[in-house]
Amino acid sequence: MSFLFAWTLLCLLVCCDIGECRRRNVLLIIADDGGFETDVYNNTVVQTPHLRALSERSVIFKNAFTSVSSCSPSRSTILTGLPQHQNGMYGLHQGVHHFNSFDGVQSLPLLLNQANIRTGIIGKKHVGPGPVYPFDFAYTEETNSILQVGRNITKIKLLVRKFFQSQKVERSETEEERPFFLYVAFHDPHRCGHSQPQYGMFCEKFGNGESGMGRIPDWEPKYYSPDQVKVPYFIPDTPAARADIAAQYTTVSRLDQGVGLVLQELRDSGYENDTLVIYSSDNGIPFPNGRTNLYSSGVKEPMLVSSPEHRQRWGQVSQAYVSLLDITPTILDWFSLPHPSYSLSGARPVVLTGQSLLPALISEQSWVTVYASQSLHEVTMFYPMRSIHQGRYRLLHNMHYRMPFPIDQDFYVSPTFQDLLNRTQSGQPTGWFKTLKEYYYRERWELFDIQSDPTERRNLAGDPAYTPVLKGLRDQLLKWQWQTEDPWVCEPDAVLETKLEPQCRPLYNGL
Ligand SMILES: *[C@@H]1O[C@H](CO)[C@@H](O)[C@H](O)[C@H]1NC(C)=O
Ligand SMILES: *[C@@H]1O[C@H](CO)[C@@H](O)[C@H](O)[C@H]1NC(C)=O
Ligand SMILES: *[C@@H]1O[C@H](CO)[C@@H](O)[C@H](O)[C@H]1NC(C)=O
Ligand SMILES: *[C@@H]1O[C@H](CO)[C@@H](O)[C@H](O)[C@H]1NC(C)=O
Fold first, then answer.
1. Is the distance from CB of 107 to CB of 350 less than 8 angstroms?
2. For this UniProt entry, which residues form the secretion signal (predicted)?
3. Which pick of 27, 51, 455, 473 has the fewest CB atoms within 10 Å?
4. Sequence-separated (6 or more) residues with CB below 8 Å from residue 236
5. 118 phi and psi, to 5 degrees?
6. Cα–Cα distance, 303 to 308 (Å, whole number)
7. Is ligand 2 within 6 A of the CB of residue 402?
8. pLDDT tier at 463 (50, 70, 90 boundaries)?
9. Is the per-residue pLDDT at 335 higher than 70?
10. Ligand 3: distance of its center to the CA of 181 in Å?
């Protein structure tokens, strides 16, 4: 244990006796495939009063991004601060996909645990192995029905209550209450048409009280008609897609009311004034050009950060570019814990390339750069991509661009995609902003000016006028890949030789 670390640990325990140190806890709420279906982000159709109330006590980040558009990889980056290619969670954790982080990864729950902070998880865990992601209190899909711990908001409320009650039992027994980190990972508004179609495409019928659906006592479902919904630019405007979105909105009402219940428990337990609350989602929404893509529509996330100690910017919108890679540094900063010095590869020490968001709660920051890195989703979906988004430019590197872009099971059977396939095959208008062929076959480098081309349709990579921009971004992206020990750093036209001095050795493969 380093001296600094030991000192911080001591401080957490005794500083309050000195008088200045306040009690500090964290509540992290992550939605599953959630997007901007909320009036917090100016979607005026979807009613989300509880997210709205949270946003009034938060800084609202308008430019928040995940570093990977896939569930387990994203959750591993949230809980480690390391991109998927560095922590080892290259794809989905469950079933045959079986991806896991490296045994040596020192995750956020592990570090908090070592610092005597009590950790809890309720809902979707979807990361492993167990010893890398330890929680003192756990109600997840590993031991429960995911519908219950991830979508039944009454059940979730009761589990949150149980967590807070056990905090207090511990205090009464030891006369010392440990700070806590509680991670509530909703499974809403994820699709369920591929797994439990009886409950609807987004499980929007689960617990609505209709025959065979069961009842979730705390949920008052909100219904929307297909002609009412707002179709984002990257979704085909068709009756099938509109019906799909209307179902998604109903599930968002369960998420929103669930967030309200969790925050009410926090308040009722007396923790509201001591707890940093972060709300975000793991990846883009499960629609064409969304989840599994590194386009804006696949990586842009809602992000609310609510600190009871930083009220000066409550309700304000920040333009700063922030990443889910910033969540671990933010929480470590909140608890005044350093990131330990250790190595995963045996060579260089691991560095966090994200940063604490706490300064943005005090004043607007001029952060303009975020990175992304995707390798797989399902085990069959190898399509490595890296990207940098800086100011007005987004650069993507599609390393295996000669392969068709892969499609996942859950998205494949969605009404929106089936309709798109049918329309494409039968030559009918698709109502989409690109063709299926363009979607499947991409250029190796894609450079977009999101200011003049927010829908990312004009690839500027081949335009000589943008050569300096392209080169500058490519160099920065490569630098980040080396810094984060990306095994794909030499792909696709060279081989990484790691021994002695790591270097790229050319393949002369014509790419
Ligand atoms: C919502 O719209 C208002 C008015 O155009 C704008 O000022 C604000 O930044 C928007 N909020 C978000 C989160 O995009
Ligand atoms: C949700 O959880 C509550 C409390 O455990 C239970 O009474 C209710 O039946 C559950 N609803 C469904 C649809 O499973
Ligand atoms: C929380 O802090 C605010 C502002 O200092 C105060 O008005 C409120 O009473 C506090 N709530 C609790 C439960 O202590
Ligand atoms: C697509 O076409 C198939 C075969 O004709 C049909 O069974 C299916 O219902 C269609 N799906 C949609 C969403 O239109």
1. no
2. 1-21
3. 455
4. 288, 416, 419, 420, 423, 430, 431, 432
5. -80, 135
6. 16
7. no
8. very high
9. yes
10. 21
Taking the alpha carbons at both ends of the chain, their separation in whole angstroms is 48
Indicate the length of the chain as a whole number: 511
Q: How far is CA 443 from CA 110, 149, 152, 186, 447, in A?
A: 41, 42, 43, 36, 10
Q: How far, in whole angstroms, is CA 242 from its chain's centroid?
A: 25
**74 phi, psi to nearest 5 deg:** -65, -45
Dist. CA 204 → ligand 2 center (Å):
15
Torsion angle of the four alpha carbons 413, 415, 418, 420, in this order, in degrees rounded to the nearest 10: -140
Please tell me what DSSP assigns to residue 41: G
- Name all residues whose Cβ lies below 6 A of ligand 3: 270, 273
Distance CA 74, CA 68 (A): 6
Q: Where are the domains of the chain?
A: 20-364
Instruction: Using CB atoms within 10 Å of the CB of residue 37, give its burial: 0 to 12 exposed, 13 to 18 middle, 19+ buried.
Output: buried
Give the confidence band of 21 by pLDDT, cuts at 50, 70, 90: low
What DSSP string describes 454-499?
TT-----TT-GGGHHHHHHHHHHHHHHHHHTT-TTTTTTTEEEE-S
Mutation to probe ligand 2, out of 151, 152, 218 (largest number of atoms < 8 A from CB) = 152
Mutate to test the pocket of ligand 4, among 242, 418, 426, 436 (most ligand atoms within 8 A of CB): 418
Distance CA 253, CA 223 (A): 9
Backbone angles phi, psi at 269, to 5 degrees: -85, 0
Q: Compute, in degrees rounded to 10, the torsion defined by CA atoms 307, 308, 311, 316.
A: 40
Tens of pLDDT, residue by residue over 27-51, are: 999 999 999 999 999 999 999 999 9
Q: Is the pLDDT of residue 411 over 90?
A: yes
Q: Are 279 and 32 in contact (CB under 8 A)?
A: no
CATH number for region 20-364: 3.40.720.10
User: What CA–CA distance (Å, rounded) separates 74 from 66?
Assistant: 7
CA 110 to chain centre: 19
Tell me how far apart the alpha carbons of residues 94 and 72 are, in angstroms, rounded to a whole number: 9
Asked whether 477 and 371 are in contact (CB, 8 A), the reply is: yes
Active site residues: 71
272's tokens: 């509201």
Q: Give the ligand with the smallest distance to the CA of 153.
A: 2
Place of tokens 């988004």: 389
